[in-house]
Amino acid sequence: MQTTIFVTGGAGYIGVHTLVCLLEAGHRILVLDDFSNSSPQALARVEEITGIKVPFVQGDVRDTEMLKRLFADCAAHEVPVSCVLHLAALKAVGESVSLPLKYYDVNVTGTLSLLEAMRTAGVKRIVFSSSATVYRPETTLPYTEQHAIGPSNPYGQTKAMVEQILQDFCHADRDFSAIALRYFNPIGAHHSGRIGDHPAGIPNNLFPYITRTAIGSLPVLPVFGTDYSTVDGSGVRDYIHVSDLATGHVKAIDWLCDNDIQGFHPFNLGTGRGTSVLELIDAFETANGVAVPYEVRARRSGDSAEAWADVSAANLVLNWRAQHTIEDMCRDGWNWQQKNPSGYEK
Ligand code: UFG
């Protein structure tokens, strides 16, 4: 019997890249998104890339009754939901410090609502979009999945809380299984240049700041600190091509569904390699033959010096490994930026 993968937040940056991989792998999908930080145009681009129409519903994940109706509808049409991919969330670290209630509501209450609807409908599998930010910073590297949990901001707290909820739920119902994918730093874009990241306003993250400086819509890139004890003093992160991250989701879903897995399983998704801010700027300039003017500023509060992943669990268990280089990420991200200077707007 054909089943449905129900994707919350499917129109977002990670969502659209994952939809492309899911559709290319032959999965049937249904997307839920409220388009608060995304656009239906992004789903149209997924259709353009894959040639497959993307069914979607505009709605809020906190609307439990609506979710119950959607699950019941899928079952009634003989395409029951076999797995939920839960990406819908707010994701700006700084905003989560000033608006914690909003973050706990959307990210935690939203997940409780989803789990309640899944319980009613008998949907037993979930893959959750978590983050490396759940790890306690400034301790031994690389981070394995056993590393201590200790997020340092409300956004990270919501991710850690949802992981705990999933763990408890799996414990209470032995037929229920969950994967938490702990993303490191996804950057870049689909090689077609049709989908990519376009944060509203001034970007918080390094990579979109680089591309907007390179294209001239921002005058200069601030480098937050060159006095860390790292390779060149600037912060080091594990950047991963968003298309590799997307493949990781498909591997996780297939592993969960094909092997009748029980319990809660966290996996890091990264490359296992660290790149400094200055190295990334240099790689971007070299890959694309374009200048990125930057200025060294003070450290950004809350930042850690270094973070990179131990990716052996995802490699051994899910048979997944990131394929793209830093150069690929820089080239594809720049291709997207140049072709879509205003994101998905016409
Ligand atoms: N940086 C700059 N200038 C900028 C922006 C960032 O120098 O304008 C530096 C930061 O100091 C850091 C590195 O670039 O050293 C990466 O910063 P990002 O903001 O791109 O990424 P973070 O690692 O701080 O955070 C990201 C996501 C979070 C997630 C976390 C997981 O934004 O949502 O990874 O570790 F939780």
Task: Give structural notes.
With 346 residues, the chain is an alpha/beta fold. The protein has a domain at 4-189 and 239-270: Rossmann fold, CATH 3.40.50.720. It has 11 helices and 13 strands. It has helices at residues 13-24, 40-50, 64-76, 93-98, 100-121, 154-172, 206-215, 242-258, 277-288, 312-318, 326-339, and strands at residues 4-8, 28-33, 56-58, 81-86, 125-131, 177-183, 185-187, 221-224, 236-237, 239-241, 263-269, 275-276, 294-297. The strands form 4 sheets. Strands 3-2-1-4-5-6-11 form a 7-stranded parallel sheet, with helices on both faces. The protein has a two-stranded parallel ribbon with strand order 7-10. The chain has a two-stranded parallel sheet with strand order 8-13. Helix 6 (154-172) links the parallel strand 5 (125-131) and strand 6. Helix 9 crosses helix 11 (326-339). The longest helix has 22 residues, at 100-121. The chain is globular and about 55 Å long. The model has no long low-confidence stretch (mean pLDDT 96). The structure holds uridine-5'-diphosphate-4-deoxy-4-fluoro-alpha-D-galactose (UFG). Uridine-5'-diphosphate-4-deoxy-4-fluoro-alpha-D-galactose (UFG) binds next to helix 7 and strand 8. Uridine-5'-diphosphate-4-deoxy-4-fluoro-alpha-D-galactose binds next to helix 7 and strand 8.
